[in-house]
Amino acid sequence: MKKLVLIPIFLLLVQLTVSAQPGYTPSGENLQNREWFQEAKFGMFIHWGIYSVMAGGGDFGIAEWIMNQKEIPIDAYENLSNLFNPVEFDAAEWVKVARDAGMNYITITSKHHDGFAMYDSKVSDWDIAERTPYGRDVLKLLKEECDKQGIKLFFYYSQLDWHHPDYYPRGRTGQGYTGRPESGNWDAYIDYMNAQLTELLTNYGEIGGIWFDGMWDQWEADWQLDETYALIHRLQPGALIGSNHHRMPFPGEDFQMFERDLPGENSMGFNQGGISDLPLEMCETMNGSWGYNIKDRRFKSTTQLIQTMVKAAGYGANFLLNNGPMPNGNLQPENIDTLKVIGKWLDKYGETYYGTTRGPVPPRDWGATTRKGKTVYVHIMDYGDESLFLPGLTDKIASATLFDDQSKIKYTQNEMGTIITVPFDRRNDIDTIVVIALK
Ligand code: FHN
């Protein structure tokens, strides 16, 4: 039974006080892109920055957080950029890996919490062009390749900044160790953030959207979302805005993401918002870390990742699967291998996934259902009986077959729903799919 998500009163108050883009009406282009997003289903998340040089520092799961977790002052942390020289980076290879895996978009960190821009920013010299021996704008190289291979590119942008002196007052993080003065001009920081967003929305052609993160660092701050969201929608009306604030979406946001939890679940303890009627996306790591962590060998199995991907689709949500590339510019070999297996699975079963909406029965421990027009796909992943009850599925059925061999599946119906019988010897060990064609 899914845990009910109780939204504490104070969070509802936050919902009321955060200014966003009141009265926002998505453009026709934006609505089209929302539909594209829902059809696209599967994307590659990329957490890549100078922190990858530290490879997690020998600890678990703190790769991109190493500056804060190890309390590295700015004057020391800045040396890290001199060691970041990803000479092996090959945008064509990364995009091909994504495409071969069945991914239709990439969301890459343009700036994470350390404030380091992975592109050639003109409003800061704290960026890959000015501060690394590599000196090239990887976002530009990646966007050119995405355009060539027909993949959309989204930019992750951290509102939280541990480097900028005007990120003041501080929030829950970046306190005390950075060496920044205990003063600053918050409005100047917002202007700086909006200037960088203008660069990202002006210099890279049409982008899929902006994936914000970091508001949770200080809820009480005046994030001036109305100005930022209006700027983005003015520069690129079709760009989709999402913000990983773990609350119900604010006006001006075009999709809702869930971090390492299926929509509406809260195993991570911070996904306290409900499920909106915006396009949904769930993001997940391959192991336990977002950035490259050499010690983190807790790689999830391909079975677990495929089942999560399908359960997300059972909620009508996309699956954004993360890579933390290495400092030399290569994707982790373990991740490449996993993506090849997922790609093969989608080659065979993709019609039960792409272009589907949530099915008539919400995801359960046993699996999920997806739907495409008058066809319902029942994804049986882990079920100890041969007969499975599908509550509420009372539509008249034309046929029920096993996807794998098109053989007939026995079923019966009553006013409560449908019971299908799938003998154990006709199941596979990842996702046994029953295709129910409705009349
Ligand atoms: O602090 C970040 C974290 O580094 C990572 O970017 C994830 C990805 O969703 N978001 C924040 C944690 O919620």
Describe this structure in words.
With 439 residues, the protein is α/β, with parallel strands linked by helices. It has two domains: 14-357, Glycosidases (TIM Barrel), CATH 3.20.20.80; 366-438, Golgi alpha-mannosidase II (Immunoglobulin-like, Sandwich), CATH 2.60.40. The chain contains eleven helices and 16 strands. An eight-stranded parallel β-sheet has the order 5-4-3-2-1-8-7-6, with helices on both faces. The protein has a five-stranded antiparallel β-sheet with strand order 9-10-11-16-13. α5 crosses α7 (138-149). The longest helix is centred in the middle third of the chain and has 17 residues, at 186-202. The protein is globular, with a radius of gyration of 23 Å. Residues 1-7 have low confidence and may be disordered. Residues 47, 64-65, 213, 244, 259, 283, 290 line the site of ligand FHN.
Keywords summarizing the entry:
439 residues; alpha/beta; TIM Barrel; Immunoglobulin-like; 2 domains; eight-stranded parallel sheet; five-stranded antiparallel sheet; 11 helices; 26% helix; disordered N terminus; binds ligand FHN
In short:
The chain has helices at residues 9-17, 28-40, 66-69, 74-77, 91-100, 128-131, 138-149, 186-202, 225-235, 302-314, 333-349; strands spanning 42-46, 105-111, 152-158, 209-213, 240-243, 256-259, 280-284, 317-323, 357-358, 367-372, 375-380, 387-391, 397-402, 410-414, 417-421, 432-438.
